[in-house]
Write a structure and sequence with these properties.
3-stranded antiparallel beta sheet; 1 helix; alpha+beta
Length: 74
Amino acid sequence: MTRITNIRPAAWRELEQAVADILRECGMSVQQGVRIALPRGSVDLDVLAEETVDGIGTRTVCECKNWKKPVPRE
């Protein structure tokens, strides 16, 4: 399997930065530590990437977790 990067982040901030860098390299507009408004309040996002292809805009949301155990569903 081909990897996008060989970076193995030691902390969540390094993981967040690596994710943002990869999405930027893909040509997306990237913001880190963003709060967005939702119909029932707001949410803080680790990485928000946006792009427009053939007039269609998309948003990609990444929540970066660098835990030693699986992330719980909650």
